[in-house]
Structure formats: structure tokens, C-alpha cells
Amino acid sequence: MKNFKFIYKFMLIASLIVMNSCVDELVEMNQNPNGIDPANANPNLLMSSVLSSVATTYNNLGYGNIAGTIQHTQKDGWWTSHNVYDWGPSDWNNWYGFLRSNDLMMRRADDLGYSFHKGIGLVMKAFIYGNITDIWGDAPYTEAMRGNTDVLFPRFDSQEVIYQGIINDLLEADALLATGNTTGMSNSNDFYFSGNITRWRQFANSLLLRYYMRISEKLPQVARAGIESVYQSGNYIQVNTNDATMPYLGNVSADSWPENTAQVTDASGFRRIKPCQTLVNKLLEYDDPRTRVWIRPVHCRWVADETLDVAIDPFIRENGQYMPLGESFRRSFLDAEYMQRIAAGNVYTRHFNPILKAANPELANVIIDTNEIVGVPAGAVTPDGHNLNPTVGQIIENQHVSQLADIYRQPRGPLLSARLISAAESYFILAEAASKGWNVGNAEAHYYAGIQQSLNTWGVGNEFADYIAKPGVAFSAATALNQIMEQKWIASWTVPEAWFDWRRTGLPSLQAGPASLEAYVAVRFPYGNNEINFNNENVLTAVSRLENTLDAEARVGPNNQWAKPWIIQGTGKPW
């Protein structure tokens, strides 16, 4: 028995020793030798990570589904999310991930006395939360970034609280940056302004213009006082060369323009994105000089030909002549072949007889677009077949619809930047404020300044005088707000801001297409599964504050893309 007790005690002691050894081993294994202790993190490296990630994500929205929603572009393949808002639950993990890195940068800035970094952190915090609440609605704010405390299930603050917090952060940021203290700043890590503190102040104040105007229908007195104050300061972005942008390096896909064709073997991602006819119609109506900068003419143009002995010629022509293919003729080329042949000076057409077409019951109501620039209608039922495309599907592009301009095939370029906010936007905001009677100068002058700065951005500023003389563009006090918002919508190409403006004002007038799940354009992203699964009680509370007025609530539930968040409740906008 004594021997048994001894053996038992020995094994117990040995086990404890082994367990302690394992704990020591596990502690050492969980310490990444290549990692950085947060207490020693370099704010400059954190800053570069935040700036690049936020700009890239923002641009992906403006070039992605929001571009489809706001009818700048459409897709003719894999199109339901882009064209008709067929959105399931959408997580915001990436945005809150940016906030965590940004929060660490600000804490390290406090530790080191780096006021410039703290100011940048406050600007980026405001920008990130602005996108979260703009996109989803109510969201964790006052209890966010507290996972290392007892707050495991943060409540969702109202949009009113979040927007006020955004404004306060931007005001604090401007005050910090105004001290001019650049201690510890590494200019090469500032991907937006290379350490220029004046331009960061202009960025902060231009964002103030944006978010004051965002709340103008709900809190008009706060908005008016704020915008008038920023205007009087003169400290906002006023020239396009000071726009808040991040150029793409183009080395790997992560730092390259999205869906470029240079880094892939299959360029179908690029080919799917087409200009939307809603935007194309306005560009052509005004003979807008930005049209050819953004959009490429069709590979093969339709030509009305009353001498044709059939209603629709199935074959294309090169420089007016049919092209032999075996015992028949060519119907199309692949995109790469078209690009090469057109670059060599060849012109491609396809003919139809409008008289015979009108006499054919199956074709009489089919519209054939003979323009050089052709877009896809918003929410079309068969977008890949638009304009009598003979090669429906994903393999061969639609030769009778325009693709985006060749610059968007490249991974980088002088015009390929993520655009966070611009001088054009600042002026259009001031034009709108002036049209409301606020003390911010002259609406017409700001309107024209917005157009001028946008044209400058895209390299066509020398066409300003001709452009603003065109009917519909020339300023009219009677239609001022419509014109301001229309021109701002055009100038917001590749920028998500156009969606939030439309939602707030209902301008320009956008109609959902026939394939849309609802007869209205969507106004928000549904809350994602991550929150639904792990923070459900707070999600349900936030969803209960949404305003549902359409059939979508009965069909897909109250957390849907047509449920109105606080910012547009009671405004009668956008529908």
C-alpha cells in the first residue's frame, strides 16, 4: 500500500511538471517571433495599412455593386447583385477590422505624442464609420472596439448618434492638425498626401461638408451652421490636384485596379462590366467630354440600310465588306481580335433594314441602338442579349455594346486612383447649400466650379466653356437642384457617394429595371450573418428601427435592402 501511495504521488508530481512544461511551451508557441507587440507598434506602419485598405475597399464599392445600383454601370454576366440588388446578408468585418488597426494607431499616437497621427486616425475613423452607417444604417459605435473589455455584444447606435460622432471626430481632427505638429511622421507611409498636413485638414473639412449635408433633411439647423462654418474657413478641397485619392501601384492584384485584364488569363471579369444606358443617355445628350475617357465605342456598330434584302443581317462587315469564314461569313470576333483589328484602323459594322424590321412582328418592337457609345439598360431581363447581341453568354463579348475605356484594362495609370472625396464634390455640396438659401456664396458659381474641377480630373478641362453652354448643363435657377445633383452624379463616376446622394434627394430620378426584385432601387445593405449569428439581440433591435414600406418585408424579412434607415425616414425620399 505504501508503495502504491508513493507511486501515485510520484505520478501526480510528474504530471504536474509535464503540465507546467506544456503551459510554458504553449505560451512560447503562441508568441509569434515575427509579430509586433501592440505596445511597440509603429504608428506609421499602421497608418499605411489603414489608408491603403480603406481606399481600396471604398473604390471596390464605387466600381462594384454600388456602380450598378446608381446606374453608372451594369453587368451582362453574373449580374443579379450588380443590376437588380439581389443582395443577401452582407458582413462588415473588413470595415471593423480597419477600425481596430486605426484604433491601435491612435492609441500609439497618444503614447508617443504624435498629434499628426492622432489627427489622421480621427479622420479615418470618421470616414470608416461614415461608410458603415451609410451602407447599413444603425451600427455598433459607442460600444465598438471594446472586445478586450466586458462588451462582447455591442449595441447598435442610431444613425443620428453615429453621424454626430463623425462630425465631432472631424472637428477634433482639424483642431489637432491645425497645430502643425508633424512629430514622428513618415511621409512615405502617407499614401494620400505624403505628409502634407494642410491637405489632411482640407480632407477633414471636405468630409465635414459631406456629412453635414448628409444630415440636412433630418437636422437642418446643425447642417446649415456646419456648412456655413466650413465655407467661411475656406479650408476645404478647392482644386482637383488636392483631391483625396490613392493611386494604384499595379504590382500585384491587391494593389491594382480591380478587374484589370493585364494580370489575368481570362478577362471575363472586365468584359462583364458595361456602361449603364442611364448614364450613357446623359453623356450623349450633353456631348460630355468625359464620355470617351470612361467608355470605349462599340466594336461593331449597327447601320440602318434600306437596300438590305433581309430585316437583320447576321454577318458583320470590315470596312464595308463581308469577311469570308469557311463557306459563310463572319458573325463576330473575340475581344482580343477586335482590339487588334480596330487598332490597325479597321471599322466594323452590321446592317439592318428598318422598313423590313418594322414589318416583322417579332422585330418591330426591338430597339436597335446605332450609336457609337451604347450602354446596357438598368435591370434588363437579359442584359447579355442587349442590342441584338449574336453571341449571348459569357464566352464572347457583346460586340454591339460598349465596354469601359481601355484605361480600365490596365492595373495602374494616371487616372486610376481610389477617389475618397474631391474638389468637385465640395463645390457641388456648396452649390446645393446655396440653392437652399444658406450663406455660402453663389449657387451658380459653385455649380460651375464643380463641373470645372471634375473635367480637370479627367483631363478634359479645356472643354469646360463649350460644355457649360449646352442646354441642360447651362445653369438655371428654376432647375438648380436637379442640375446640381445630376452633375454631381455624373462626376461621382467610380465613387459610392452618388448612391447616398440619390437616396437623400431622389435625384437624379432612377427607376429599377424589369428584372429587379422590387420596383424601386435599393437603399441599404442587409446586416450580415456574422452579426445575425453572434449578436442577434442587438441586430433585431436595430432592424426593428428600420422602416419597411414595400413587399420586400413579407418576402425576405425586415432586414432587407429596401428598408429605410433613420437618415431617410420621414423625408419621402428617394421614393
Description of the structure:
The protein contains 22 helices and twelve strands. The chain is an alpha+beta fold. The chain folds into two domains: about 300 residues, Serine Threonine Protein Phosphatase 5, Tetratricopeptide repeat, CATH 1.25.40.390; about 140 residues, no CATH class. The strands form five sheets. It has a four-stranded mixed sheet. Strands 1-5 form a two-stranded antiparallel ribbon. β7 and β8 form a beta hairpin. α8 packs parallel to α15. The N and C termini lie far apart (about 85 Å).
Write the layout of secondary structure elements.
Elements: H1 2-29, H2 43-63, H3 65-69, E1 73-75, H4 80-84, H5 93-112, H6 115-135, E2 139-140, E3 156-157, H7 159-177, H8 197-214, H9 220-233, E4 244-247, H10 268-272, E5 273-275, H11 277-285, H12 291-294, E6 301-304, E7 312-318, E8 321-322, E9 324-325, E10 328-329, H13 335-343, E11 348-352, H14 354-359, E12 417-421, H15 423-435, H16 443-457, H17 464-468, H18 480-491, H19 497-505, H20 529-534, H21 536-544, H22 552-556
Parallel strand pairs: 6-11
Antiparallel strand pairs: 1-5, 2-3, 4-12, 7-8, 7-11, 9-10
